[in-house]
Amino acid sequence: MTTNQRQSLLSNPGVRTFLIIWLGQFVSRVGTAMTRFALLIWAYEQTGAVTTVALLGFFGFLPYVLLSPVAGVWVDRLDRRKVMLLSDLGSGIVTAALIVLFFTGDLAIWHLYVVEALTAALDAFQVPAYSAASTVLLPKELYGRAGGLRSMADDGARILAPFLGGVVIAAVGIGAVLIVDVVTFLAAVLTLIVIRVPDVRGQQDEAPHFWREMRFGFDYIRRRPGLLGLTLHFTVVNFFAALTYFGVLPAMILARTGGDEVALGLVQGALGAAGLVGGLLMATWGGPRRKIHGVLIATALSFLLGDFLFAVGRGVVVWMIAAVAAAVFIPILLGSRSAIWQAKVAPAVQGRVFATDGMLRLALFPFGYLLAGIIADGWLEPAMAAGGTLAPVFGPLVGVGPGAGMALMFVGTATMGSLMSVLAYLFPGVRNVESDLPDFDAEEKKPQITPITPISE
Question: pTM of the predicted model, to two decimals?
Fold first, then answer.
Protein backbone atom coordinates (compact mmCIF):
# COMPACT_ATOMS: atom_id res chain seq x y z
CA MET A 1 0.00 0.00 0.00
CA THR A 2 1.44 3.39 -1.03
CA THR A 3 1.70 6.46 1.22
CA ASN A 4 -1.06 8.19 -0.75
CA GLN A 5 -3.33 5.17 -0.31
CA ARG A 6 -2.71 5.14 3.44
CA GLN A 7 -3.46 8.86 3.68
CA SER A 8 -6.62 8.38 1.66
CA LEU A 9 -7.79 5.61 4.00
CA LEU A 10 -7.03 7.66 7.11
CA SER A 11 -9.08 10.52 5.69
CA ASN A 12 -12.10 8.18 5.60
CA PRO A 13 -14.27 8.99 8.66
CA GLY A 14 -15.30 5.36 9.06
CA VAL A 15 -11.69 4.16 9.10
CA ARG A 16 -10.74 6.80 11.68
CA THR A 17 -13.69 5.80 13.87
CA PHE A 18 -12.75 2.13 13.66
CA LEU A 19 -9.15 2.93 14.66
CA ILE A 20 -10.36 4.93 17.69
CA ILE A 21 -12.53 1.99 18.80
CA TRP A 22 -9.67 -0.42 18.15
CA LEU A 23 -7.25 1.63 20.26
CA GLY A 24 -9.64 1.76 23.22
CA GLN A 25 -10.32 -1.97 23.02
CA PHE A 26 -6.58 -2.70 22.81
CA VAL A 27 -5.87 -0.74 26.00
CA SER A 28 -8.76 -2.50 27.74
CA ARG A 29 -7.49 -5.91 26.63
CA VAL A 30 -4.06 -5.22 28.11
CA GLY A 31 -5.62 -4.64 31.53
CA THR A 32 -7.85 -7.71 31.25
CA ALA A 33 -4.95 -9.92 30.17
CA MET A 34 -2.82 -8.68 33.10
CA THR A 35 -5.59 -9.62 35.53
CA ARG A 36 -6.09 -13.06 34.00
CA PHE A 37 -2.36 -13.76 34.05
CA ALA A 38 -2.13 -12.84 37.73
CA LEU A 39 -5.27 -14.67 38.82
CA LEU A 40 -4.44 -17.81 36.80
CA ILE A 41 -1.17 -18.14 38.71
CA TRP A 42 -2.94 -17.34 42.01
CA ALA A 43 -5.64 -19.96 41.36
CA TYR A 44 -3.16 -22.69 40.39
CA GLU A 45 -1.03 -21.95 43.46
CA GLN A 46 -4.10 -22.30 45.70
CA THR A 47 -4.96 -25.84 44.56
CA GLY A 48 -2.19 -27.20 42.30
CA ALA A 49 -4.91 -28.86 40.17
CA VAL A 50 -5.34 -28.57 36.41
CA THR A 51 -9.11 -28.72 36.91
CA THR A 52 -9.02 -25.40 38.77
CA VAL A 53 -7.50 -23.63 35.77
CA ALA A 54 -9.72 -25.51 33.29
CA LEU A 55 -12.88 -24.49 35.18
CA LEU A 56 -11.91 -20.84 34.77
CA GLY A 57 -12.13 -21.39 31.02
CA PHE A 58 -15.35 -23.38 31.34
CA PHE A 59 -17.15 -20.59 33.17
CA GLY A 60 -15.52 -18.04 30.89
CA PHE A 61 -17.29 -19.45 27.83
CA LEU A 62 -20.49 -21.25 28.87
CA PRO A 63 -22.53 -18.04 29.44
CA TYR A 64 -21.25 -16.69 26.11
CA VAL A 65 -22.60 -19.76 24.33
CA LEU A 66 -25.94 -19.72 26.12
CA LEU A 67 -26.61 -15.99 25.75
CA SER A 68 -25.36 -15.39 22.21
CA PRO A 69 -28.71 -15.84 20.40
CA VAL A 70 -30.42 -13.43 22.81
CA ALA A 71 -27.55 -10.96 22.57
CA GLY A 72 -27.64 -11.05 18.78
CA VAL A 73 -31.26 -9.89 18.73
CA TRP A 74 -30.48 -6.90 20.93
CA VAL A 75 -27.36 -6.03 18.92
CA ASP A 76 -29.54 -5.71 15.81
CA ARG A 77 -32.27 -3.82 17.69
CA LEU A 78 -30.08 -1.29 19.50
CA ASP A 79 -27.33 1.21 18.75
CA ARG A 80 -24.25 -1.00 18.49
CA ARG A 81 -22.01 1.66 19.99
CA LYS A 82 -24.20 1.75 23.10
CA VAL A 83 -24.17 -2.05 23.33
CA MET A 84 -20.36 -2.01 23.35
CA LEU A 85 -20.32 0.88 25.83
CA LEU A 86 -22.64 -0.84 28.31
CA SER A 87 -20.72 -4.11 27.98
CA ASP A 88 -17.42 -2.42 28.79
CA LEU A 89 -18.97 -0.56 31.71
CA GLY A 90 -20.34 -3.83 33.06
CA SER A 91 -16.93 -5.49 32.82
CA GLY A 92 -15.39 -2.60 34.74
CA ILE A 93 -17.97 -2.97 37.51
CA VAL A 94 -17.27 -6.71 37.77
CA THR A 95 -13.55 -6.04 38.13
CA ALA A 96 -14.25 -3.38 40.78
CA ALA A 97 -16.16 -5.99 42.79
CA LEU A 98 -13.18 -8.33 42.46
CA ILE A 99 -10.95 -5.59 43.89
CA VAL A 100 -13.18 -5.25 46.94
CA LEU A 101 -13.10 -9.01 47.58
CA PHE A 102 -9.32 -9.13 47.21
CA PHE A 103 -8.52 -6.25 49.54
CA THR A 104 -10.97 -7.45 52.19
CA GLY A 105 -9.30 -10.87 52.15
CA ASP A 106 -12.51 -12.61 51.09
CA LEU A 107 -11.47 -13.64 47.57
CA ALA A 108 -12.02 -17.36 46.92
CA ILE A 109 -11.67 -19.60 43.88
CA TRP A 110 -15.42 -19.70 43.32
CA HIS A 111 -15.46 -15.91 43.06
CA LEU A 112 -13.19 -16.18 40.03
CA TYR A 113 -15.66 -18.56 38.39
CA VAL A 114 -18.47 -16.05 38.93
CA VAL A 115 -16.36 -13.22 37.53
CA GLU A 116 -15.48 -15.26 34.44
CA ALA A 117 -19.16 -16.11 33.91
CA LEU A 118 -20.31 -12.49 34.20
CA THR A 119 -17.55 -11.27 31.88
CA ALA A 120 -18.47 -13.95 29.32
CA ALA A 121 -22.12 -12.88 29.47
CA LEU A 122 -21.11 -9.29 28.69
CA ASP A 123 -18.81 -10.46 25.88
CA ALA A 124 -21.80 -12.18 24.26
CA PHE A 125 -23.12 -8.68 23.56
CA GLN A 126 -19.82 -6.89 22.97
CA VAL A 127 -18.20 -9.22 20.43
CA PRO A 128 -20.97 -9.30 17.75
CA ALA A 129 -21.59 -5.57 18.24
CA TYR A 130 -17.88 -4.87 17.61
CA SER A 131 -17.79 -7.03 14.47
CA ALA A 132 -21.05 -5.63 13.08
CA ALA A 133 -19.92 -2.04 13.76
CA SER A 134 -16.68 -2.73 11.87
CA THR A 135 -18.66 -3.82 8.81
CA VAL A 136 -20.52 -0.52 8.43
CA LEU A 137 -17.47 1.62 9.24
CA LEU A 138 -15.02 0.06 6.78
CA PRO A 139 -14.94 -0.54 3.03
CA LYS A 140 -15.18 -4.21 2.08
CA GLU A 141 -11.58 -4.47 0.93
CA LEU A 142 -10.40 -3.71 4.48
CA TYR A 143 -12.33 -6.47 6.28
CA GLY A 144 -9.37 -8.85 6.28
CA ARG A 145 -7.00 -6.13 7.48
CA ALA A 146 -9.42 -5.13 10.22
CA GLY A 147 -9.43 -8.74 11.38
CA GLY A 148 -5.65 -8.58 11.50
CA LEU A 149 -5.80 -5.43 13.63
CA ARG A 150 -8.23 -7.05 16.06
CA SER A 151 -5.86 -10.01 16.38
CA MET A 152 -2.98 -7.59 16.91
CA ALA A 153 -4.86 -6.05 19.83
CA ASP A 154 -5.42 -9.46 21.42
CA ASP A 155 -1.85 -10.62 20.88
CA GLY A 156 -0.30 -7.28 21.76
CA ALA A 157 -2.11 -7.54 25.08
CA ARG A 158 -0.77 -11.08 25.49
CA ILE A 159 2.78 -9.80 25.02
CA LEU A 160 2.48 -6.91 27.42
CA ALA A 161 0.38 -8.63 30.09
CA PRO A 162 2.96 -11.14 31.45
CA PHE A 163 5.67 -8.49 31.55
CA LEU A 164 3.57 -5.67 32.99
CA GLY A 165 1.65 -8.02 35.27
CA GLY A 166 4.87 -9.53 36.60
CA VAL A 167 6.42 -6.11 37.22
CA VAL A 168 3.32 -4.77 38.99
CA ILE A 169 2.89 -7.93 41.10
CA ALA A 170 6.54 -7.87 42.13
CA ALA A 171 6.48 -4.16 42.98
CA VAL A 172 3.02 -3.71 44.50
CA GLY A 173 1.00 -6.94 44.41
CA ILE A 174 -1.96 -8.52 42.64
CA GLY A 175 -4.33 -5.84 43.93
CA ALA A 176 -2.55 -3.20 41.86
CA VAL A 177 -3.07 -5.30 38.73
CA LEU A 178 -6.81 -5.29 39.37
CA ILE A 179 -6.80 -1.52 39.75
CA VAL A 180 -4.92 -1.14 36.44
CA ASP A 181 -7.62 -3.30 34.83
CA VAL A 182 -10.37 -0.90 35.92
CA VAL A 183 -8.42 2.08 34.58
CA THR A 184 -8.01 0.42 31.18
CA PHE A 185 -11.76 -0.26 31.01
CA LEU A 186 -12.25 3.49 31.36
CA ALA A 187 -10.09 4.02 28.26
CA ALA A 188 -12.38 1.76 26.23
CA VAL A 189 -15.47 3.54 27.59
CA LEU A 190 -14.12 7.00 26.77
CA THR A 191 -13.34 6.10 23.16
CA LEU A 192 -16.88 4.77 22.69
CA ILE A 193 -18.35 7.95 24.16
CA VAL A 194 -16.63 10.22 21.61
CA ILE A 195 -17.42 8.26 18.42
CA ARG A 196 -20.56 7.44 16.44
CA VAL A 197 -21.44 4.32 14.45
CA PRO A 198 -23.89 4.45 11.50
CA ASP A 199 -27.34 3.11 12.36
CA VAL A 200 -28.46 0.36 9.94
CA ARG A 201 -31.57 -0.77 11.81
CA GLY A 202 -34.03 0.83 9.39
CA GLN A 203 -37.79 0.96 9.84
CA GLN A 204 -39.93 -1.85 11.17
CA ASP A 205 -42.97 -2.78 9.15
CA GLU A 206 -44.50 -4.74 11.99
CA ALA A 207 -43.93 -5.38 15.66
CA PRO A 208 -40.85 -7.63 16.02
CA HIS A 209 -41.29 -11.09 17.47
CA PHE A 210 -38.37 -11.82 19.78
CA TRP A 211 -38.29 -15.58 19.38
CA ARG A 212 -38.52 -15.37 15.58
CA GLU A 213 -35.68 -12.88 15.60
CA MET A 214 -33.60 -15.15 17.80
CA ARG A 215 -34.23 -18.07 15.42
CA PHE A 216 -33.31 -15.95 12.41
CA GLY A 217 -29.55 -16.48 12.84
CA PHE A 218 -29.95 -20.27 12.93
CA ASP A 219 -32.13 -20.25 9.79
CA TYR A 220 -29.78 -17.88 7.97
CA ILE A 221 -26.73 -20.09 8.54
CA ARG A 222 -28.58 -23.38 8.01
CA ARG A 223 -29.72 -22.31 4.53
CA ARG A 224 -26.22 -21.38 3.42
CA PRO A 225 -24.11 -24.58 3.34
CA GLY A 226 -20.81 -22.74 3.06
CA LEU A 227 -21.39 -20.69 6.21
CA LEU A 228 -22.78 -23.74 8.02
CA GLY A 229 -19.68 -25.73 7.07
CA LEU A 230 -17.37 -22.97 8.31
CA THR A 231 -19.25 -22.85 11.59
CA LEU A 232 -19.15 -26.61 12.15
CA HIS A 233 -15.46 -26.72 11.22
CA PHE A 234 -14.68 -24.19 13.90
CA THR A 235 -16.94 -25.94 16.40
CA VAL A 236 -14.70 -29.01 16.21
CA VAL A 237 -11.43 -27.07 15.92
CA ASN A 238 -12.27 -24.91 18.94
CA PHE A 239 -13.02 -28.03 20.96
CA PHE A 240 -9.53 -29.37 20.26
CA ALA A 241 -8.02 -25.96 21.06
CA ALA A 242 -9.90 -25.84 24.37
CA LEU A 243 -8.56 -29.26 25.37
CA THR A 244 -4.93 -28.19 25.20
CA TYR A 245 -4.02 -24.75 23.90
CA PHE A 246 -6.48 -23.06 26.29
CA GLY A 247 -7.25 -25.77 28.83
CA VAL A 248 -3.93 -27.20 30.00
CA LEU A 249 -1.05 -25.25 28.43
CA PRO A 250 -0.37 -22.98 31.46
CA ALA A 251 -0.69 -25.92 33.85
CA MET A 252 1.60 -28.07 31.67
CA ILE A 253 4.31 -25.41 31.64
CA LEU A 254 4.08 -24.90 35.40
CA ALA A 255 4.05 -28.68 36.03
CA ARG A 256 7.05 -29.41 33.81
CA THR A 257 9.11 -26.54 35.27
CA GLY A 258 8.30 -26.98 38.94
CA GLY A 259 6.04 -23.92 39.02
CA ASP A 260 8.40 -21.56 37.19
CA GLU A 261 6.28 -18.43 36.58
CA VAL A 262 9.04 -16.87 34.47
CA ALA A 263 8.91 -19.83 32.07
CA LEU A 264 5.15 -19.45 31.75
CA GLY A 265 5.53 -15.73 31.13
CA LEU A 266 8.12 -16.35 28.41
CA VAL A 267 5.92 -18.86 26.61
CA GLN A 268 2.86 -16.63 26.84
CA GLY A 269 4.97 -13.70 25.69
CA ALA A 270 6.14 -15.73 22.69
CA LEU A 271 2.53 -16.60 21.88
CA GLY A 272 1.67 -12.93 21.95
CA ALA A 273 4.72 -11.83 19.96
CA ALA A 274 4.05 -14.36 17.21
CA GLY A 275 0.38 -13.43 17.15
CA LEU A 276 1.35 -9.77 16.87
CA VAL A 277 3.58 -10.54 13.89
CA GLY A 278 0.80 -12.55 12.29
CA GLY A 279 -1.68 -9.76 12.97
CA LEU A 280 0.66 -7.17 11.46
CA LEU A 281 1.08 -9.38 8.41
CA MET A 282 -2.67 -9.78 8.07
CA ALA A 283 -3.29 -6.04 8.62
CA THR A 284 -0.87 -5.07 5.82
CA TRP A 285 -1.46 -8.01 3.47
CA GLY A 286 -5.19 -8.60 3.93
CA GLY A 287 -4.89 -12.37 3.52
CA PRO A 288 -4.95 -14.55 0.38
CA ARG A 289 -7.28 -13.64 -2.48
CA ARG A 290 -9.35 -16.72 -1.67
CA LYS A 291 -9.87 -16.29 2.05
CA ILE A 292 -10.94 -19.91 2.54
CA HIS A 293 -7.30 -20.94 2.01
CA GLY A 294 -6.31 -18.55 4.78
CA VAL A 295 -8.84 -20.24 7.06
CA LEU A 296 -8.13 -23.91 6.42
CA ILE A 297 -4.40 -23.97 5.64
CA ALA A 298 -3.48 -21.63 8.50
CA THR A 299 -5.56 -23.68 10.94
CA ALA A 300 -3.93 -26.94 9.86
CA LEU A 301 -0.41 -25.50 10.16
CA SER A 302 -1.10 -23.98 13.58
CA PHE A 303 -2.19 -27.35 14.99
CA LEU A 304 0.37 -29.49 13.20
CA LEU A 305 3.43 -27.39 14.01
CA GLY A 306 2.50 -25.69 17.26
CA ASP A 307 0.72 -28.44 19.17
CA PHE A 308 3.22 -31.12 18.19
CA LEU A 309 6.18 -29.04 19.38
CA PHE A 310 4.39 -28.29 22.65
CA ALA A 311 3.95 -32.05 23.06
CA VAL A 312 7.54 -33.12 22.49
CA GLY A 313 9.24 -30.07 23.99
CA ARG A 314 11.02 -30.50 27.33
CA GLY A 315 12.18 -26.93 27.91
CA VAL A 316 11.35 -23.26 27.52
CA VAL A 317 13.21 -22.76 24.22
CA VAL A 318 11.27 -25.47 22.38
CA TRP A 319 8.00 -24.28 23.92
CA MET A 320 8.70 -20.76 22.73
CA ILE A 321 9.33 -22.07 19.21
CA ALA A 322 6.06 -24.02 19.50
CA ALA A 323 4.29 -20.85 20.60
CA VAL A 324 5.55 -19.00 17.53
CA ALA A 325 4.56 -21.86 15.21
CA ALA A 326 1.07 -22.01 16.70
CA ALA A 327 0.25 -18.34 17.11
CA VAL A 328 1.65 -16.73 13.97
CA PHE A 329 -1.07 -18.38 11.86
CA ILE A 330 -4.00 -17.50 14.14
CA PRO A 331 -4.54 -13.89 12.96
CA ILE A 332 -4.47 -15.11 9.36
CA LEU A 333 -7.12 -17.76 9.94
CA LEU A 334 -9.30 -15.48 12.07
CA GLY A 335 -8.95 -12.47 9.79
CA SER A 336 -9.71 -14.56 6.69
CA ARG A 337 -12.74 -16.12 8.36
CA SER A 338 -14.03 -12.76 9.56
CA ALA A 339 -13.65 -11.27 6.07
CA ILE A 340 -15.80 -14.04 4.57
CA TRP A 341 -18.59 -13.55 7.12
CA GLN A 342 -18.55 -9.76 6.91
CA ALA A 343 -18.73 -9.87 3.10
CA LYS A 344 -21.51 -12.46 2.92
CA VAL A 345 -23.90 -11.33 5.69
CA ALA A 346 -25.99 -8.16 5.35
CA PRO A 347 -24.97 -5.54 7.97
CA ALA A 348 -28.53 -5.12 9.30
CA VAL A 349 -28.69 -8.75 10.42
CA GLN A 350 -25.07 -9.31 11.42
CA GLY A 351 -25.84 -9.04 15.12
CA ARG A 352 -28.09 -12.09 15.04
CA VAL A 353 -26.07 -14.06 12.50
CA PHE A 354 -22.67 -13.37 14.08
CA ALA A 355 -24.02 -14.14 17.55
CA THR A 356 -25.45 -17.44 16.35
CA ASP A 357 -22.19 -18.31 14.63
CA GLY A 358 -20.34 -17.45 17.83
CA MET A 359 -22.65 -19.66 19.87
CA LEU A 360 -22.32 -22.64 17.54
CA ARG A 361 -18.58 -22.48 16.96
CA LEU A 362 -17.97 -22.16 20.71
CA ALA A 363 -20.67 -24.65 21.72
CA LEU A 364 -18.13 -27.33 22.66
CA PHE A 365 -15.49 -24.92 23.95
CA PRO A 366 -16.60 -24.91 27.62
CA PHE A 367 -16.78 -28.70 27.61
CA GLY A 368 -13.29 -28.86 26.11
CA TYR A 369 -12.05 -26.89 29.13
CA LEU A 370 -13.99 -29.16 31.49
CA LEU A 371 -12.79 -32.36 29.85
CA ALA A 372 -9.22 -31.04 29.80
CA GLY A 373 -9.08 -31.05 33.58
CA ILE A 374 -10.81 -34.41 33.89
CA ILE A 375 -8.61 -36.11 31.30
CA ALA A 376 -5.38 -34.61 32.66
CA ASP A 377 -5.94 -35.01 36.40
CA GLY A 378 -8.03 -38.18 36.31
CA TRP A 379 -6.36 -40.20 33.59
CA LEU A 380 -3.33 -39.09 31.57
CA GLU A 381 -1.22 -37.47 34.29
CA PRO A 382 -1.32 -40.63 36.48
CA ALA A 383 -0.89 -42.83 33.39
CA MET A 384 2.22 -40.89 32.29
CA ALA A 385 3.81 -40.75 35.74
CA ALA A 386 6.90 -42.87 36.34
CA GLY A 387 5.63 -46.47 36.27
CA GLY A 388 2.26 -45.40 34.81
CA THR A 389 0.37 -47.59 32.36
CA LEU A 390 1.04 -45.39 29.29
CA ALA A 391 4.56 -44.28 30.21
CA PRO A 392 6.35 -47.19 28.43
CA VAL A 393 4.44 -46.51 25.20
CA PHE A 394 4.50 -42.72 24.93
CA GLY A 395 7.33 -41.86 27.32
CA PRO A 396 9.97 -41.82 24.56
CA LEU A 397 7.89 -39.20 22.71
CA VAL A 398 6.69 -36.84 25.45
CA GLY A 399 8.62 -37.92 28.54
CA VAL A 400 7.25 -39.04 31.90
CA GLY A 401 6.42 -37.35 35.17
CA PRO A 402 4.50 -34.13 35.93
CA GLY A 403 3.10 -32.55 32.78
CA ALA A 404 3.73 -35.56 30.52
CA GLY A 405 0.05 -36.53 30.44
CA MET A 406 -0.88 -33.03 29.32
CA ALA A 407 1.88 -33.18 26.69
CA LEU A 408 0.29 -36.38 25.34
CA MET A 409 -2.97 -34.46 24.95
CA PHE A 410 -1.15 -32.08 22.61
CA VAL A 411 -0.17 -35.03 20.39
CA GLY A 412 -3.86 -35.84 19.97
CA THR A 413 -4.92 -32.28 19.14
CA ALA A 414 -2.00 -31.78 16.74
CA THR A 415 -3.23 -34.79 14.79
CA MET A 416 -6.97 -34.17 14.92
CA GLY A 417 -6.93 -30.40 14.48
CA SER A 418 -4.79 -30.46 11.34
CA LEU A 419 -6.71 -33.43 9.93
CA MET A 420 -10.10 -31.74 10.39
CA SER A 421 -8.89 -28.63 8.55
CA VAL A 422 -7.58 -30.61 5.58
CA LEU A 423 -10.74 -32.72 5.39
CA ALA A 424 -12.87 -29.56 5.23
CA TYR A 425 -11.67 -29.12 1.63
CA LEU A 426 -13.66 -32.23 0.70
CA PHE A 427 -16.93 -30.31 1.17
CA PRO A 428 -17.79 -28.14 -1.88
CA GLY A 429 -19.92 -25.75 0.16
CA VAL A 430 -16.92 -24.85 2.32
CA ARG A 431 -14.32 -24.98 -0.44
CA ASN A 432 -16.37 -22.72 -2.73
CA VAL A 433 -18.11 -20.50 -0.16
CA GLU A 434 -16.72 -17.30 -1.64
CA SER A 435 -17.88 -18.04 -5.19
CA ASP A 436 -21.14 -19.86 -4.43
CA LEU A 437 -22.52 -17.33 -1.94
CA PRO A 438 -23.07 -13.73 -3.13
CA ASP A 439 -21.77 -10.79 -1.13
CA PHE A 440 -24.22 -8.92 1.09
CA ASP A 441 -24.44 -5.90 -1.23
CA ALA A 442 -25.99 -8.20 -3.83
CA GLU A 443 -28.20 -10.01 -1.30
CA GLU A 444 -29.59 -6.92 0.39
CA LYS A 445 -31.30 -5.92 -2.87
CA LYS A 446 -33.58 -8.92 -2.54
CA PRO A 447 -36.95 -7.79 -1.14
CA GLN A 448 -37.32 -10.74 1.22
CA ILE A 449 -34.32 -9.74 3.36
CA THR A 450 -35.34 -6.98 5.77
CA PRO A 451 -33.18 -5.30 8.38
CA ILE A 452 -35.14 -6.19 11.50
CA THR A 453 -38.05 -8.52 10.96
CA PRO A 454 -37.01 -12.17 10.48
CA ILE A 455 -38.20 -13.69 7.25
CA SER A 456 -38.81 -17.12 5.87
CA GLU A 457 -36.59 -17.63 2.89
Answer: 0.77
